[in-house]
Every structure is written in structure tokens, then in C-alpha cells.
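Q: Joint fold for the lines below.
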Amino acid sequence: MTTYQQLVLASRPQGEVVPANFRMESVPVPALKDGEVLVRNHYLSLDPYMRMRMEDVKSYAAPQAIGEVMIGGTVGEIVESKNPKFAVGDKVVGMFGWAEMGVSDGMLLRKVDTTHIPLSAYLGSVGMPGMTAWYGLTQIMQPKEGETIVVSAASGAVGSVVGQLAKQRGCRAVGIAGGAEKCAYVVNELGFDACIDYKAGNLAADLKAATPNGIDAVFENVGGKIFDECLGRMNPFGRIALCGLISGYDGEPMALNNVRAFLTMRLTMRGFIVSEHIDLWPQGLKELGTLVATGKLKFRESVAQGLQSAPEAFIGLLKGKNFGKQLVKLV
Amino acid sequence: MTTYQQLVLASRPQGEVVPANFRMESVPVPALKDGEVLVRNHYLSLDPYMRMRMEDVKSYAAPQAIGEVMIGGTVGEIVESKNPKFAVGDKVVGMFGWAEMGVSDGMLLRKVDTTHIPLSAYLGSVGMPGMTAWYGLTQIMQPKEGETIVVSAASGAVGSVVGQLAKQRGCRAVGIAGGAEKCAYVVNELGFDACIDYKAGNLAADLKAATPNGIDAVFENVGGKIFDECLGRMNPFGRIALCGLISGYDGEPMALNNVRAFLTMRLTMRGFIVSEHIDLWPQGLKELGTLVATGKLKFRESVAQGLQSAPEAFIGLLKGKNFGKQLVKLV
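A: Joint structure:
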């Protein structure tokens, strides 16, 4: 194997992301220098945050450069090593982006144990999405036993973990998801107390019925009307972990209308980026890893096959077509 | 004097508050029971929060009942006492509402010293509005030296204190107010670094010019477009103390459009009600009282004469016609 494939950002989206925003390239496998390793990626993670990086706007991170490999988390295997800390066959988590292979000096690579935890889970419940859920829940929502928490995109990689962790802390966990199948999964498989199908057309009434004691904390992934409905059900001193606003990523207007609730209910809202809280990752990953290894934290994956499927899978993710963690299988 | 005057809520406002929402009543001065005092109110405080109480909606406090005396803070003098803790002539802060007199068992009365601080200031900079400013600034905005803070309604009873306290903590203080006269006062008299006239029609450009290093913390009294403009200038990890939304109190739509800034800049917003943090009042009032007594905290009052002027003065306050703390002088 002397070349590998990678996907670069060809152009910035005008509204919705389209396949033409990406371009496949074939590049030579580089020769390793001392200290470097070559990784063959087994899975690529697709995550909503990538949508924001595709735009050239002021944000928490520099925009994805045109012509460069799309960023993204990956898990894979060392296939060649000139670094004594890594042996051929070691499984590693990295940030090689939308590419079949990658070279690293090892600095940002993390070896993982796949004895009890499947490799792909390190991109999901025991990776960045899981930590996002853990951070938002424990550090911002801070739910107490008996409180009601609501999480949007509840069947997704992040939302599914939020609700399960909340249940383990004695909370009433209510999810919001799109479609009866996802909602059934959230309640029957993940163990949430209720899940509201926002596509069913009765969001306000269904939310009221599912939260008879109001809402104490929200994990918000979506924004827009769903978020406004939640704000109208908040109890005094409610907390909102603002993780994503996927409903507005394509530029649709996404006003928050119920601003007054923040005042009348003395709410606290905090936006966060989990990569800025690396100090808490060991603590969070320990809890998440134990739960996955012992079968107490369930997850589901949507797996697209081959790097060429990544653009369509990503576009589907932004429209909620995935079911659980969206991955691209590369090997 | 066997009777006194009081204003009751006659009807709930439909949109803007109108004089017909209030009704003047003459009531007998009651005979005191043991333990009670009779207070003659010298000043009545008019505050934006009263507007929300006039409506029958879910909020932090029960709505003002129809036919009952409008609530409100007052300062006055003991004119009769059957309570050993209070002597005739003592100056007191109370919550007697829109009324010339009031009877109390002393529980919620606070004796104040007018040697160095004028009585009316206990309804302003050394009272609830001052504490509102102090709490929002010190507990939520937590500005560090060199940071830029922005406060809307900057010439008002709360905003004026926010900016002055921020200046004393080494911040750049930028106000927003309506009209050139108020803005000149905010800069020249109160010592803010800049003040933007939102009526001048260049809000976005003026805000940008006044905050060359962005905004680190906002004290929000107004809401609406002004708030959105501020959100667009926030620096990472900015803090927003949400104190009021006066632009929306009459029911105008008041959407927050720049929700995305909360995510991209990892902002924290907290709504608060200062009366829920009584534990901090001694600390705050000590700082505020010392500053007023030594001339280091300046304030301005708009004083309406006589209880009958309260409705018009209150309606003017909601439209920004007041200049500084709005009071009604009763004696």
C-alpha cells in the first residue's frame, strides 16, 4: 500500500451541506521519521460540531481550511512504528480526520484497551461524545435525585449517555427524538422514563405530560422551537447545558423566544466545549468505560461503509437520519 | 390625620400600562396593637420589576392582586410606636407599597442612619437597586481587572451602580442609554469609559467602537436588539447577568437571535432576583453605603411629587423618561 485516500473540504456550504463540499484525494503513504508512527484508521467519527467548522465565522476554533483534510476523531491500529511507546498492533484513538491513514509523533495519540470495550466505542460513549454528556450533566446540570432532566437528540451519541447517566443518579430522564422508532429505543432500550417524538406534532402537550413536575435541567443539542418549549417548563433555578444547536447549523433563523423564562425562573445557561476541560476526562472516562464494560451503558451505532460514504453519512447526521453514534468504517 | 391615601391595582394592563390600571383610595389610619408601629412614608420607590407583578403569569412571585395596594419599597419615619425597638422619629426602610402610611410589627422594617446618607438613597444606591447591581456584578459577572463590561439602562438606578463598581475594580465600563443627555451624564458624571446612545441609530457600529477588545461581561436590563448586539461582541467565557428585560414587559416580541454566541463563545447567562440572596446584603450594603457616604458612588434621582403622580411616573419609567432613580415624594 503506497497511497491512501482522504477527503478534503472543497468549498464552504451555502446553506445545507452538499457532497460537492468535499473532494476525495489520493496521497502517498509517507516514510516515517524517528519517533513517528503510521496508523491505519478503522473508524472515523462523524459529529455535528464539524458543521460549524466548515464555516468561516468567529467561533471557538479556527475554521476548517479549504483544501485540507476534514477534521475528525478516529480509532485505528499502529501499522508501523519508529516510536518506542507504540508497537505494531496497538489500538489508538487519534484525530486523523477523514482519512484512511495518518502519521503522528504520538503526542496526541492515546492507546486504548479493547478487551472489554469495543474499539468503536472510544469514538462514542467512551470518547468525546460520552465525555460531552458526562461534562454537561455533572458540571452544568448538576441534577439531584428526584429531579427531572430533559435531553434533546436523545437517541444520539451524546443524548443517549446524558439520559442513562441521569437515571443512574436517580433522576427522571425525558428524551426528545425524531420518530416513533427512536423514541421506542430511548425508552425501551436506554431506560429513559419517557421520550417525546417532536415529529408527532404535539410537542408542547407531550412535553407537559412527560414532565408533570416541570423541568430542572436541560441538555440542549438542537435549539429552536424544541428549546423554547423546554424553557417554558423550567422550574426555578433550572440549569441548561448548551451543547449544540443543530437545528440552526444550516443558517435557518433560530431565535430563542422565551427569554423571559431566564429571568422569571432564574435560570442558568452555559455553553461549553468538552475539549476545553481535559482535566476532567480521566474521571469521566473512568465512569463511562466501567459502565460500558459492564453493560450498564448502552449505545447504538450507525455505520457507513468506506471513506467515500462519509459525505452522505454526514449530511444524514445533520438531518437526524442516523440512529445512535454515526461512524464510518474504513477497514 | 385620620385617613391616608393609597393606590391599588384596578386592572391588569393590556399591553402598555395606563393610568386606569390604578385606583386611588382613602383608608382610615388604623389603631395600633401592641408591638406595632405606624410609619409615614417619605418616598416611594418605582422599579421596573413592578411591571411584571401586574400580570397574572407564572413568575418568581405571586402576581399583584387586583384591588390590593401596589407593592413597593418605601422609606419613612415612625410617627407612632407600640414597639420598644422603634421610637417616634426613627427613619426606616419598609415595603409599604404605593401608600402614604403603613402599619408594621417591625419584622420587615430596617432602621437606617441618615447622618451621611440621604434617606432616599436607601431606595436606590444603598437599597434594592444598588444591591441588584452589586450582586450581578460581583456574583455573576465576576469581572477581572482590565476586562470590558457593558451595562444597559446605564443611567438608571441599577445600571449606574454597575458601571461605577466595575470602574473601581479596574474594568473598562461601557454603558448603553437612551439619548445624548443621559449618555453625557454616564460618562462625565458617573465616570464610565463610554456610553452608547441606542436612539442614535448606530448601535452596532457604536458598540464595536466602544468595545475594541470585545465584551467580557454584560449586565442586561433591557433585552431585545440591544442584547443581541452585545452577544455578538462577547469574548470567550463571557458572563451575562440577566436582571431585567424592560423592552419586553409590555408584551412586544423580544426574541434572542444570537443564541449561537452562547455556544461558540461558551457564555454563561444567569437570571437572578436580588431578594433571594439576602445573606449577601450586609456585605454589599456595607460597600455601597461607604461609597455613597464618601461621595465615591454618584447617583441621580427623578422625583415625582405626591402619591397621585405615581402612575404617570411609573409609566414614564417603563419608557425610559426618568433620569436616574425614580422616586415619588410623599411628604
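Q: Anything notable?
A: Residues 128-141 of chain A form the longest helix (14 residues). Residues 304 and 328 of chain A are 5 Å apart (CA to CA).
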